[in-house]
Amino acid sequence: MNETQHLSSQFEGDLNHLRTSVLQMGGLVETQIAAAIAAYSSGEVGSVKQIVETDRMVNDIEKAIDDDCAHLIARRQPAASDLRLVFGISKIVTDLERAGDEAKKIAKGVRRICEAGQMPAQYGTGVRHIAEAALGMLRQALDAFARVDAGLAQKVILADVDVDTEFKSIMRQLITHMMEDPRAITTSIDIIWIARAVERIGDHAKNVAEHVVYIVEGRDIRHPPKEAQA
Questions:
Q1: What is the pLDDT along the chain (230 residues), one digit of tens a residue?
Q2: Residue 145 to residue 220: CA distance in whole angstroms
């Protein structure tokens, strides 16, 4: 193997390490979200501490990936599609970290509700439904990244509309509930914050999918022109 081939092999190894680290981080965030959804459904708050501890691990991996991206750019000076991959990964891990933060908010909201003697799940299945939908979006977005599949990423982007619509429906239901029974205001506000965190997880999954499209096709589709949104 000559020097050029050796350097090329090392570079590919660095890129593969980055890809693996992103998927590892994504797996941890998926675990956080799934645990938060389970706690919401069961009222079992024992997992909250573990969710918070997992969030620290997610933060550490994000920092390590950011460092690896910076070092790879400095050492290898990647061009074209390889540079898009590194930049895309840097953005993906930011959204994954923020999705993990939202899972932590859900878990802490569940704990507050349970400590007040209430069961979160008694406020309807809507929150759990959109939470499972948002988690499914994140899984698909990570799958699209692993497969380098822009078509699958586009499906994730379209799915965010349904999550947003259901979130607005839950908001209307909870506001009506608070108006009819003022005693439910405190708990309903906690549910609203949980639903909002779920909706944000969907947004971050959509963002990850948009970054995948950028990596694969070189198109930045995050902010379409207004006429395209009409």
A1: 544 554 577 888 989 999 999 999 999 999 999 999 999 988 888 888 899 899 999 999 999 999 999 999 988 888 888 999 999 999 999 999 999 999 999 999 999 999 888 888 776 668 999 999 999 999 999 999 999 999 999 999 999 999 999 999 999 999 998 999 888 888 889 999 999 999 999 999 999 999 999 999 988 777 666 545 54
A2: 15
Domains present along the chain, CATH in parentheses: 3-229 (1.20.58.220)
* CA neighbor of 69 nearest in space, from 107, 120, 18, 141: 18
CB 163 within 8 A of CB 133: yes
Residue 189 DSSP class: H
Helices 48-76 and 80-115, packing angle to 10 deg: 170
Assigned token pair, 146: 């692993």
Given a contact cutoff of 8 angstroms between Cβ atoms, the answer to whether 208 and 137 are in contact is: no
Question: By the 8 A CB rule, do 93 and 19 touch?
Answer: no
Q: Residue 66 corresponds to which tokens in the numbers above? A: 């950011």
Instruction: Mention every residue, 6+ apart, whose C-beta is less than 8 A from residue 29.
Output: 58, 96, 97, 99, 100, 103, 138
Token look-up 């990423």 returns: 153
Judge residue 68's burial from the number of C-beta atoms within 10 Å of its C-beta, 0-12 exposed, 13-18 middle, 19 or more buried.
Answer: middle
Structure tokens at 26: 């994504």
